[in-house]
Each structure stands twice: as structure tokens, then as C-alpha cells.
Amino acid sequence: GDTTAEIAWSAVDGAQSYTVSYARPENDFLTARVVAHTTVAAAQLCGLSPGVSYVVEVQAVGCSTSSPSGIVCSTKTGGVVGPFAALKLATTGQPLQAVTHLAAKVDNHSPTTVLLSWKTPPYKQNMSWKYKIVWGSSVSEFRRNNSSAFTSGSTYTVRNLHACQTYLLAVMIAGPIGYGPAVQVQVITGEDPLAPPRLVTTTVNDLIMTVQWQPPCSLFFSSTNTSPKPNDNSSSGSNASTDTTTASTRYLLSIT
């Protein structure tokens, strides 16, 4: 069928069960293999994508002989040895297409919010698609699907991102008939005045503590030093307050 398949193989004498596994080649983000177990020499695979070729691997568990199908077992009960027996199959139906016209825009009123929009891909029949959105600020985070969401619409709002950070985002069909290929886009979030500073350091010389930092978006400014001169503030007494607002990236606290 379009999203299901039935496979069968020659039974192995003495096998207690079989392990069935396969990869998902239809989408780069489906990195985990699907693994199932059965006690009979047949299995039904569900949740596949239409028009995709799969390679299914089968191992027998806890047997002591080999079969003509190439499935080999160990002499130890419960043991599994290779090689796997590979079974090739292909689902029917029209392969799913990637979304089109994917666009990412930083919200003018919220610089750490990204607005995504795309168009429904063409298909032979009208479908109520479900989409998966994935995002991350590094390739590893992006590929691990650490941050993801689902929607049935053709727009999505990603909120609470870090300021002045490059993000990778991807959108793909995720149902109701399998997964389609992913489309990626890159965006840089804007400056947020409430974002925490970067590279905060402190140094102490006698009774003077110097705290220095950089704005979260300093990498986007000119390398020429145009920042104001250090703002030296001091307070007397052991209970000196450090709750001082300053536009400088340096602050001195003196205790006398």
C-alpha cells in the first residue's frame, strides 16, 4: 500500500523471535531506525511514506540453525548474530513533495520571534496536511530535533529565541500519510534590550572590583571603538549598592 507493507521470510528452526528494523530514507531528520519484534516469520510495517524504497533487515533470536533465507542464529538462547537478512520493498503511491516558498522573518515588534510561512506542495488529491517544524542554533542541535513543533496550518511562530543568534529552521510534511522531504532556511534574530550581556568578567585590585561585559549583539557593530568612556561610580560603606544602570560596558565598585 501507500503507507503500509507486509513482509514474510522462511522460519528459522528453534527461533524464539525475530527483530525487524529499517531506516527512513524519505527525510534527513528521521535518523533513528524503526525497530520491531515478532514471534512469527512475518511482519506488517505501518507509518511508511508513499513511493519510497525501503531496505528491511531481519534477525532471528535464540535459535541454533540457519535457514535458506540467510538468517543466522547463535547457539546461546536469546543471542543474536549476523549477518542480517535484507528484504527490499517499495510503497505505492505518489511520493510526497517538499513545501514551497518557505520564508522566515524576524518579528518587527519582538526581535527574538521568527515568523515562518510556506505554501502547500502539490499532490494528486486534496489533503489536510500536518507539518513538522524543527529549529536550532547549531547544526548538531538542529539535526537532533531538540526543538520542534507540529501544525496543521501553513504558518508558524517560533518564540523565545536568543537575541542576535543565527538559527536554522526546517519545515516538512509529517502526516497524515508519512513524511516528505525537509526544506531549510536560515535567519538571524534581532537585538533585544532585555537580553543578558555576553562575556561577563570581573577583576579585583585591592578594594576595587571591575566588572566588564559586551552587549549581546556586539558582533554586529563596527570594530571601531565607539562606546562611551568607562563610567566610574563609587559608593561608600560595606553595604555599597551595585544596582546602577549604565550604558557603558564597564563598571567600577569601590569599597572604602
TrEMBL record:
UniProt-listed Gene3D superfamilies: Immunoglobulins
A Pfam short name: fn3_SORL1
Region (Disordered): 224-245
Chain intervals with Low complexity compositional bias: 231-245
Matching InterPro entries: FN3_dom (IPR003961), FN3_sf (IPR036116), FN3_SORL1 (IPR057841), Ig-like_fold (IPR013783)
Keyword annotations: Receptor
Domain Fibronectin type-III, first and last residues per copy: 1-80, 98-193
Protein name: Sortilin-related receptor-like
Source species of the chain: Hirondellea gigas
Biological classification of the source: Eukaryota, Metazoa, Ecdysozoa, Arthropoda, Crustacea
